[in-house]
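Hi team,

As requested, here is the filled-out complex form for the magnesium ion run. I kept the field names the same as last time so the parser does not choke. Let me know if anything looks off before we queue the next batch.

— J.
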Amino acid sequence: MTEAKFGHVALIGRPNAGKSTLLNALTGEHLAIVTHKPQTTRHRILGLVSEARGQIAFVDTPGVHRRKPHALNRRLNRAAAGALRGVDAAVLVVDAGRWTDEDELAAGMLKDFEGVRILALNKIDLLKDRQRLLEMTAELSARLGIDCVVYLSALKGDGLDDLLDELFVRLPAGEPQYPSDEFTDRSSRFLAAELVREQLMLQLHQEIPYGLTVVIERFESEPRRLLINALIVVAEERHKGMVIGRQGTVLKRVGSRARRAMAELFGQPVHLELHVKTRAGWTDDDRLLDELGFAD
Ligand SMILES: Nc1nc2c(ncn2[C@@H]2O[C@H](COP(=O)(O)OP(=O)(O)OP(=O)(O)O)[C@@H](O)[C@H]2O)c(=O)[nH]1
Ligand SMILES: [Mg+2]
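And here is what came back:
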């Protein structure tokens, strides 16, 4: 029998490349929230894959971006860069259809990285031009010192086994560092707050979702259900009405969809209450960011 492997593997890349979709596909759980909007992920999240071959702790990260440099955005880029510290491998997740300045920024983070470098060309289900894929593979592999390339559709689950095979071959021998029946290092409170934020991002338009955060104020287990109260924090008073919607329609829709997602993730019925409050300018206020749980 070969020795079991263990390693931490960071998923890095620009916003919208599909890192969180990949984390969820690998773990089979809705751990990381996914939307079609860039900058969905705001925190590092571990997703654990435990097999007979060993254990891999994948680290999902916020997309590396060039947006307005307010305090929250600076923290997001720092969280992505910091995720490479101490990990055994980095997977640069790229939307194979389009290489942008932000991909270049994410690739730049590999400059001094000493671990295994894997290039994951994602969204191949959308790609028509195979020739372009080959050119991209050759150019990026040489330029970024890539150890191996995998082709994925995180959305359809294609190529996941290739990625796992390549990683298990390259990771060091080691015992699992996390319980094999767990999927993440994040608390149920964190996951619940994220599921509310996912629905808010999907239901609201333009810039409002970027000025929102969610705090769980109550999380209690009753014999037959979970009681969860979530506070939605907005950065401007005028956003409150938009979150609530005419006759509360938006908030109701967010609540019922988030509740369903929570019930599925936690495996039991959920009673969810939502409230909305303004904390003016929280996205550019380091004290409030600390208080709201953003890593510095
Ligand atoms: N067609 C297709 N769409 C995908 C694939 N992977 C992800 N997507 C879509 O791309 C969008 C962004 O996916 P995310 O997983 O949130 O991307 P991310 O890299 O985590 O983005 P940030 O959290 O903003 O950094 C979503 O609409 C996904 O459904 C894929 O393989 N094929
Ligand atoms: Mg994400």
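Two things worth flagging: DSSP finds nine helices and nine strands in the chain. The longest strand covers residues 212-221.

Thanks,
J.
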